[in-house]
Queue: 2 jobs
Job 1
Amino acid sequence: MKNVDSTQDKRRDILEAAEKVFRANGFTAAKMDEIAELAGVAKGTLYLYFDSKQDLFVSLLEDRIWEYVATLTKKLEEVCSVQGFVQTLAKVRGQLFVKNRWLLESLSHSLPDFSKEFRMRIWNLRKGLEEPTIEALTRLLPPDYPIAPLQAAAMVNGALDYTVGTLILHGQPVVLEDVARALEYILLPGLSQAPGEDYSGQ
Amino acid sequence: MKNVDSTQDKRRDILEAAEKVFRANGFTAAKMDEIAELAGVAKGTLYLYFDSKQDLFVSLLEDRIWEYVATLTKKLEEVCSVQGFVQTLAKVRGQLFVKNRWLLESLSHSLPDFSKEFRMRIWNLRKGLEEPTIEALTRLLPPDYPIAPLQAAAMVNGALDYTVGTLILHGQPVVLEDVARALEYILLPGLSQAPGEDYSGQ
Amino acid sequence: MKNVDSTQDKRRDILEAAEKVFRANGFTAAKMDEIAELAGVAKGTLYLYFDSKQDLFVSLLEDRIWEYVATLTKKLEEVCSVQGFVQTLAKVRGQLFVKNRWLLESLSHSLPDFSKEFRMRIWNLRKGLEEPTIEALTRLLPPDYPIAPLQAAAMVNGALDYTVGTLILHGQPVVLEDVARALEYILLPGLSQAPGEDYSGQ
Amino acid sequence: MKNVDSTQDKRRDILEAAEKVFRANGFTAAKMDEIAELAGVAKGTLYLYFDSKQDLFVSLLEDRIWEYVATLTKKLEEVCSVQGFVQTLAKVRGQLFVKNRWLLESLSHSLPDFSKEFRMRIWNLRKGLEEPTIEALTRLLPPDYPIAPLQAAAMVNGALDYTVGTLILHGQPVVLEDVARALEYILLPGLSQAPGEDYSGQ
DNA sequence: AATGAATGAGCATTCATTCAT
DNA sequence: TATGAATGAATGCTCATTCAT
């Protein structure tokens, strides 16, 4: 009992320390020494829980992403309109982005020297990250909607992430409600129109 | 004169070599030795033209981005409708993304250990990259459009980049015409509607 | 009683595991973890029976060498001619060499970082290994034989070991009877001749 | 000119430092830092001249062994009797052994973790080391001598090395003339006898 | 301006040993 | 006695940068 708990505790401590250090420095510049010190364990202990720096990094991504995916999936299952979808997405994914921008950006970056196994794990994460959005859109968009859910999801997610990223870049406060409103204003008409409709404003 | 030309030639040779090596390996894994060899100069010569590896990297980004910004600015100046804007953007920025994905991703990634000066130069690039889009939208959107051009631009650019990135990730062919069409279908209604209009599909 | 037996059993298990691992990897590359696992005990238990990796290694050598020395001593005591000596030696020591080449080579190799105490123990082993040969030759050679038994023994042992080693190196099968015959052919005349005899072939 | 010389000088300096350090500590315990310091160069410089610690080690063996092989080959070519052969061998190989005992022992030891390439290079050295002896014996022994030169050479070399090693082990002075005499006394009769001869002293 | 040999700080990983249980 | 989780010192190798020529 105690052993299992203490083992899980230590693993969690290490992941938390790793998150801070990776976030602050990026993968390459992060130092295992610093992670160990921050986690309050000896350097060698890191290797009892993770095979390598790469494994630690990807395990961290997995831990955080799967947790987020589960949350988002649950929230989106309760949604029954495209509008609700956009609002929920903006809130949940936007929050993730604000808190873990580096994490999402790490995913879309090919890390140096990563072995095939790790590239595969990252690839799975990237795909998994889109799953809830794709699923929700598949359910909510009209069956004859002319854009594939994969692409529609990419556009919504891209618009959301990039907007939040831009606000951060420009030092402006990120108010997710405002972002949600803008997202609705720009995307909802296109997502809501019937396939045959003339969408051009002319 | 001759000296200036030869100097410029060598600088260009180095930038071209650097582009290939950085693209193939990313910043950290790229080696100055390889760049020098590919450029046909001695290792020490690199330091006659650039202060450091970081300087070479950022100079390369600047060189390529400003060139692209000039092109896009010119193309967008000829555009006189939101629809034309979306089509032109998809073509020009989409092309850049397909060819220089690593370049754009480098911009949005916090490079490890980069000094403040370099972070600033990269920040300028990121802002400059959005300029033409913002400018065009400022001109083309109705004056009372409720979304700030900065955010609108972010959404269009994000939707475009993320869609192309997703296609690449899934190993699907990137046909920019199709991407442009999907972009139009989803974004144009929202970008074209009058401010007071009821956009919700209900 | 029971305790003693069980203790002896465990000690023997560890030595057997250690033999396999040391033989396969050599001293430095052998890992205590692997030895413990193969012996079916916990890593810490090794240190209840042996002070250190070095102690385990040298204890193993001692265990095996003294056992071999006892065997050879007994066999050589029954021998009553130089020819019988050569034959018996080729058979017994040759066998040891074929089966435990690494063991003999370990003895003649200065192990890295071994402390003085351990070097001494190894030195004793090396000397002990020659004892039976020296004793037998002292008994069998004519009292006025001009070569000291120590040197004569060294020559016989060296010729034997090196020949077997060479055969192994060249991937040739080691037939100890053949080796014994060659050894006899080359060494016996010299070992058998009376001191004053003219041994040169001229 | 100067560059080539200075390059050769530095390579030689490194080899000399490596010899001292490897001799004193063995391969595994030897530290590249110490070699660099002793050679008076920076650690990185070692890697300009040798690919790795293993490469440095094997290159050193090669350098020393080939030099010795050339010397021995030349000396043995002038020899025209088995007796002369034994004397010359004792002098030249004995000298090598006294000075570079660790070197010869390194050869007959399977170094830990050595890659196939390096094992091959060491194997070639071991074979090359026997070449001059085999060649000389092939020339000097009667054509119908019943022992293959390879085995005869192994016996002579083994007897010689082991004798010298034993003297060193026992702390006795190594007088090569005495060793040569003992070697002659014991080996010459066997090496000189005609094939049909009865060699047993009985 | 150009070279390229030399530098040396920096770092992930291993593994014998310990000690609380 | 026995365990095995935790330790942390130890080390080969890389590569951006310098500088004598």
Job 2
Amino acid sequence: MKVTAPRSVVVLEGIVSTYKTTQAGRRQAMAYHVPGDVPDLQSLHLKVLDNSISAVGLCRVGFVQHDAIRHSMRAHPRLEAVFWRSTLIDAALVREWMLNVGRREAYARMAHLLCELITRLQVIGLSSDYTCLLPMTQPELADALGITPVHVNRTLRDLKAAGLITLRSRRLTVHDWEGPKAAAEFDPIYLHLGSDEAE
Amino acid sequence: MKVTAPRSVVVLEGIVSTYKTTQAGRRQAMAYHVPGDVPDLQSLHLKVLDNSISAVGLCRVGFVQHDAIRHSMRAHPRLEAVFWRSTLIDAALVREWMLNVGRREAYARMAHLLCELITRLQVIGLSSDYTCLLPMTQPELADALGITPVHVNRTLRDLKAAGLITLRSRRLTVHDWEGPKAAAEFDPIYLHLGSDEAE
DNA sequence: CGAATACTTGATTACCTTCAATACGCGTGG
DNA sequence: CCACGCGTATTGAAGGTAATCAAGTATTCG
């Protein structure tokens, strides 16, 4: 029964993923975290760790002591709602992935993941013209999509063949945004990017 | 773009599920909520609704105005952490379902869902001797497991044939807890039932 | 009591997995 | 500079789990 250290991770560069594994060792990614995210902010209130974190490709992370977070929340009470909201958005991303894994076939699933990444990276200035760096290997994509690495390969091949994407040496471009978006049924509402705070 | 009403649901009796649907109409349940749960507490901080709620069988629910929740949090500051933690546990349940749907085959998936239900209902006194009421129909189970209703039927048949469960007229019994638990790789750690609050 | 929904089972199909073998890319060292 | 080695990517063939199609039975509900 692992217990979290009294600190959380902050992603500074690169992409980090949270995941869980079955006892048989099969791995399922829960979400990707981009620079600025705190993948395990939940550990502030849940002492027992129920998922793991790993780097996807090279990345740089920082650590924040929980005490420091608590202190700043006491100093600025509105911060608590901000952090809380952040964990709620994380949960919303996981739910969308769940729909993806449970009810879309591999082709749409992959398209959806790529649309999400492009959109999120664009927001933080790491993507423009529907192009970004895709640091993850095919086995890592497989863990995010709930399929096998071999099938990831075939799915990417199909997406390329359909002209929806280009992917060469870690460089992803999504062509004709509306096409992939439709294939993926991608609707960014679940990312809660707008300033749609309640009240 | 749906916007939530300024209130949340409280489950009083029965089971409620949160779910999302693809544009093609395929439905994936995110979690089940038992009496005492607040399935959409997240709407306190996320104005835009990204999932839906529906009753699973007959149930009784109440509503709480967000203003009332905010008021009580101001009156009792420790409440904020309690509610926040509650949303974090909800997220943990969704993550476990994600692992279930993405990386376990139907048989283990079903066993896992049943183990979770029995465990959670036991905690609130709605199950004893590994027996409980199972209000959901097979199509509803299918939505929770990411499979088809037909396959739910076959999977239940197999579980019965293996002697792991009995299910007749909405009454579920899990025999020999260790067997199903092993088949499902069920480890209740993710339910955060202990008083494992951080700090 | 009739219609609608849920359950059950068989036959066929399809998506994805598994197994296997080969090719590619890239950093290292001869 | 090129050979080597390792991780990653690619492709083929065969197999399996679950989906789809279909038809009949049982239950529930109005």
